[in-house]
Prior knowledge:
The complex is a heterotrimer, with 1 copy of chain A and 2 copies of chain B.
Chain A: E1 15-17, E2 20-22, H1 33-41, H2 46-56, H3 66-80, H4 85-106, H5 115-118, H6 122-143, H7 159-164, H8 171-182, H9 185-190, H10 195-211, E3 217-218, H11 229-244, E4 248-251, E5 260-263
Antiparallel strand pairs in A: 1-2, 3-5, 4-5
Helix pairs in contact in A: 2-6, 3-4, 10-11
Chain B: H1 20-33, H2 40-45, H3 53-67, E1 72-77, E2 80-85, H4 90-94, H5 106-118, H6 123-130, H7 136-144, E3 148-153, E4 161-165, H8 167-172, H9 184-187
Antiparallel strand pairs in B: 1-2, 3-4
Helix pairs in contact in B: 1-3, 5-7
Amino acid sequence: MNPNHLDSADTPPVAKICGEPLMEIPQDLYIPPDALEVFLDTFQGPLDLLLYLIRKHNLEILDIPMAELTKQYMAYVEMMHAEQLELAAEYLLMTALLIEIKSRMLLPKPVATNEEESDPRAELVRRLLEYERIKQAANLLNELPQAERDFTTIQVWMEQKTLNQPPNISIDDLRHAWITLITRAKINRHHQVSRETLSVRAYMSQVLRHLHGRQQVTFYELFSPTASVAEVVVIFLAILELAKEALVAILQPEVFGVIYVRETSQST
Amino acid sequence: MSVKLVNPPETLDTQDTLSPFKTKRILEAVLLTTQEPLSVTELRKLFDNELNAALVTNLLNEIREKWTESGVELVHVASGWRFQTKAEVQPFVDRLSPQKTPRYSRAVMETLAIIAYRQPVTRGDIEDIRGVGVSSNILKTLSARGWIDTVGHRNVPGRPALFATTQAFLNDLNLRSLEELPPLDELGSLVEKNEELPLA
Amino acid sequence: MSVKLVNPPETLDTQDTLSPFKTKRILEAVLLTTQEPLSVTELRKLFDNELNAALVTNLLNEIREKWTESGVELVHVASGWRFQTKAEVQPFVDRLSPQKTPRYSRAVMETLAIIAYRQPVTRGDIEDIRGVGVSSNILKTLSARGWIDTVGHRNVPGRPALFATTQAFLNDLNLRSLEELPPLDELGSLVEKNEELPLA
């Protein structure tokens, strides 16, 4: 139990392209364009990728073919800038850093400075080491037994107490509950709900409440005169959605006549 | 790997034959984790229905026997078996600081989340999403709290009630509208997508 | 404290002298009823502080002993004592509800690790270490779980919030203090220290 999902002692494929596992990055750091997207997804960012390249190829950081790497990073940036602007910026920053290191190494060393400070790679190395340590820390944390995942706390039913003090909840609790629900991939597939559909759903409830206990209402009654354009659209979508789910019936007894909406569940 | 895979005398591997001892140990632990009563049918599922109902009932009775001297008892209510605190313990629990207020069970919270995000929904819809039955107690708890109500009925056989969240729910959560709930699409990225995870 | 071993049907009236037997019975029942861990200080309140901390701790240890053979254990975590299932029972608990508890993504776990090991940190600190932006949803997820909170603000322009881990984080990971976090090994250096730096 509790398999360590963050670790990969067995080195799983780096990525899968058209079902074919890409086991490792070719030595020349060239990544086929169609693989790039999938590939980048597996990394947390430019630092993660750089660390991977160094560890994978057993490189001394000093031996990194800076020119190649820079070229490759530029390709990532090209590829990403359309969709993931922020992430592209991170890679661009890393590219800039690599270029800076490269260029500073080509310049003659200033005489007065002490050697360690003058190595332009020192800061990058420090960051890589720090990041690697944190990755290790994340793995170790993930291995610790975790409440709800690896064990369950005990709370025996106590009638009176529950009656006296209703629990309070926050949005955070709802968020946590939903995150638990979507952990099942199935839910993810079936319930891609966006902000828009949520507001449609909210109005669906409102329309049903409005109809409740009435024979039928005219279509126009469902729109508040003060509603904004956006609201009108959403209410309209809500009515259509209700009709689609067979929760309301939309009737127009006469051609060009008044349109009525009624609850389908109402006994007629 | 998990820290504590060790356990004194025997492990609880189902592959092995289930000794009554092991079975009781599992039944007891599982019943202690749930506040909702569990029926014998549900409890049999724990063991892939390998144990018959009479046997499970016998074991439950043995567990009940074992607990009689304690401040907690195993009781058989309409919908199944559950552990509950004896009334005489109540005064002691009341002395605890009020911050130890009860929390809603996971089942209640998940049901509420589904109603909030997917409304209007029927009980069947909720069960589809949760993949497990929703006891009417859960829905009663939420409507007693004034957080959900029935806004209509779906026009299908049985005419199941459609649940939606109420204004009181928004008020109690300090929300002006449902749109202020955290958007779901963004929440999805926070959990692992599938079992295989990337490299170290 | 009179140590008279008495017969079961005794009531749990505090007016009487508390026998260790009664006391343990109450402690056990209250701990089974409360999901949150209870500290010795809180547990002493149950008996109007009539029992000293050492005695309560002894009794708790005796209760822990008594439970070792079962599928449930009494553990001592950051905020106190609580009952929880042993890891080996979890697969059975999971069978009751098909809902899997979230396994957080790498981004979430790395953020948590930085906060746990480098606290207090600002969002900027986290981004510096990870080399990539940290979405506010990650931080919200961790605070929704109750694992992190804001402990102050750094006195720099913008006064960014400082995040730290909470007691609930320690409790949920079965830890008593941050010192119990797994130690981070010194990792092998990426550069040979004394090597002369060749130009790439």
